[in-house]
Amino acid sequence: MKYLKIIGNKNIEGEISISGAKNAALPLIACTILSKNKIAINNMPNVADINTFLRLIEKLGGTYEKNKDEVKISTLSIDKTTATYDIVKTMRASILVLGPLLARFGHCEVSLPGGCAIGQRPVDLHLKALEQMGAIIEIKNGYIQATAPQGLKGAKIVFDKVTVGGTENILMAAALAKGTTTIINAAKEPEIVQLCEVIASAGVKIEGIGTSKLIIEGTDKKLLEIQDFTVIPDRIEAGTYMCVGAITNTKLKINNVIPLHLEAIISKLEEMNFEIIQEENSVTVLPTDEIKPVNIITTEYPGFPTDMQAQFMALATQANGVSTIDERLFENRFMHVSELLRLGADIHLNGNIATINGKAGTLNGTDVMATDLRASSALVLAALVAQGETNIHRIYHLDRGYEDLEGKLSSIGVDVKRFNE
Ligand code: UD1
């Protein structure tokens, strides 16, 4: 298996360019299932999860052509409706084909995703909402078997909990359903906004885009005609590189971002005493005299993202004082704590609240293991300021969501190399 060796405490300088957002691109690929025309998608991130999703489209009978960061997808030829376990087990986001396949074909089978490193992650809310739209759902042999003998019908869906994937699945299903679907307590993430805009580009009327109440008027067409589009920049990749600047306490400019999507991250960095310069498409982190501690509660957008919690924990180890991180979305998202402890961090866990006693210069390099995508990036951040060498194992987690991590880090002077064990 591959691992990364990082030698810490090198001076960094330069600029980083952010790739397209993985979490926007995944549902957007799923939504091509609703369309009869070939769609060109630009700014597609080159990461493992996207390649897995494209493989899933191919397994269903669709085709794609990839040319640098442009991918053209054609799903008219789809003739299978099963998302098999081998794909779903490597990427939970495969559940996003459930809504569009069911809406288009009236039946589909999707392997149950099961748990994952950050918790149980059920899909009950997706299923309940589809049932309200007329689907009949059975769980058999580890598969969700969904049928809609009369086709899907619009319904009023009230989500008990804000769910990003659930909102996406229902949005896509609603676009081809008969009548109007109202989603109350919808997720408002920028990734959802882009999905709405792309579906709306095919003439589907969606009211309330960017709010927690979405009203979707299903079309009476069998398939849509979705326009070509460009994936929005990855706010989590951007936030991670902002933390690279912050933890190394160096000026770092991050290009190709939408600063509005980074407000919660910018505000926490400001609380930690960093000055952030915001321009139209870039943010620059400036060094500070003293990194101050911070208190973070993860929540839905526009609040502080759970996907940035691990990176801020690494950063808090270098703050002057006690920080707290309260994880409210996932029950088991602190696997990085034991690895940060191996690097010398002083962190205490009490349920879903981590207390970090920060002090600059206390980390020492060693071997650590990545446990999930964002936890891995916390280890990379810690390695940047650890004394000596840190080897990060199981980096396939990082490859799932960070495009050319070594290339981008090397370009700003980080001593990082990839090895095969
Ligand atoms: C998406 C993101 C992930 C991010 C998360 C929260 C993608 C591909 N992934 O994941 O990176 O960390 O949003 O911002 O975009 N829940 C239920 N029942 C359901 C669905 C969800 O109880 O049917 C719970 C989950 O266990 C969790 C919370 O709702 O506690 C939020 O999950 P959700 O927003 O659905 O996350 P994902 O869409 O899986």
Concise overview:
The chain is of the alpha/beta class. The chain is 31% helix and 25% strand. The protein binds uridine-diphosphate-N-acetylglucosamine.
Which descriptors apply to this entry?
elongated; alpha/beta; four-stranded mixed sheet; 25% strand; 421 residues; binds uridine-diphosphate-N-acetylglucosamine
Care to describe what's here?
- The chain is 31% helix and 25% strand.
- The protein contains 14 helices and 24 strands.
- Helix 8 runs parallel beside helix 10 (309-316).
- The structure holds uridine-diphosphate-N-acetylglucosamine.
- Uridine-diphosphate-N-acetylglucosamine is lined by residues 23, 26, 93, 121-126, 161, 163-166, 306-307, 329-330.
- Uridine-diphosphate-N-acetylglucosamine binds at residues 23, 26, 93, 121-126, 161, 163-166, 306-307, 329-330.
What's the topology here?
Blueprint: E1 2-7, E2 15-17, H1 22-31, E3 39-42, H2 48-60, E4 63-67, E5 70-74, E6 82-83, H3 85-88, H4 98-105, E7 107-111, H5 124-132, E8 136-140, E9 143-147, E10 156-158, H6 164-176, E11 180-184, H7 190-200, E12 205-207, E13 213-217, E14 229-230, H8 235-247, E15 252-255, H9 263-271, E16 275-278, E17 282-286, E18 295-297, H10 309-316, E19 321-326, H11 335-342, E20 347-350, E21 353-358, E22 367-369, H12 373-385, E23 389-393, H13 396-401, H14 405-411, E24 415-420
Helix pairs in contact: 1-2, 1-7, 4-6, 5-6, 6-7, 8-10, 8-12, 10-12, 11-12
